[in-house]
Amino acid sequence: MSDYLFTSESVGEGHPDKVADQISDAILDAILAQDKYSRVAAETLCNTGLVVLAGEITTNANVDYIQIARDTIKRIGYDNTDYGIDYKGCAVLVAYDKQSPDIA
Length: 104
Known about the structure:
The chain is of the alpha+beta class. It has helices spanning 16-34, 65-76; strands spanning 39-47, 50-58, 91-97. The chain has a domain at 37-104: GMP Synthetase, Chain A, domain 3 (2-Layer Sandwich), CATH 3.30.300.10. The chain is 30% helix and 24% strand. It has a three-stranded mixed sheet. Helix 1 (16-34) crosses helix 2. The chain is flat and about 50 Å long. The chain starts with 15 loop residues before the first helix and ends in a 7-residue tail after the last strand.
């Protein structure tokens, strides 16, 4: 008999983690399209009416993080506050720093 417990999480379509992953992926894609040498550690948190973009990014790309987040939310289909978040009215907080040169 084993002395450890193995657990895992699986989330379904529409879960905030899935939305957050799509936003992070869209931001990464936009940055790499302009600067393939970028260093990106982009995290996204979604909650009712709020998107938080945080992490560390070093790039020469010039992208509109807020617009990318809103466009992604719209593409997914969140266009009504009854869904808990909508692309037009949600707050988007951007808290990206440059990566430390010690790890770059």
